[in-house]
Write a structure and sequence with these properties.
Shape: flat
Number of strands: 5
Structural class: alpha+beta
Order of helices and strands: EEEHEE
Helix content: 10-25%
Oligomer: single chain
Largest sheet: 3 strands, antiparallel
Radius of gyration: 16 Å
Strand content: over 45%
Length: about 80
């Protein structure tokens, strides 16, 4: 039997690795630690996707901002 877990992590503490020549790379150490702990507890990351949240500026004027990453995890029980 499988157990599933869906979590969203919005880590605002990115560490920039590089930014130049039209290339931007950053890492999220806190997110890595959380996912690493879950993997060590027997969970397997099956899928993940960026999460975008709407922000209403005025009536009919919407913008979206990155709200983190949503992970789908499974493990055998």
């Amino acid at each position: 039997m499988k157990e599933c877990k869906i979590i969203t992590i919005n880590d605002g503490n990115a560490r920039e690795i590089t930014n130049g020549n039209r290339l931007f790379v950053e890492e999220f150490e806190t997110t890595e630690a959380i996912i690493g702990d879950l993997i060590n507890d027997g969970w397997k990351v099956v899928s993940f996707a960026p999460d975008y949240n709407p922000a209403v500026q005025d009536d009919g004027n919407y913008t979206f901002y990155k709200g983190g990453l949503t992970f789908y995890l499974e493990r055998e029980v």
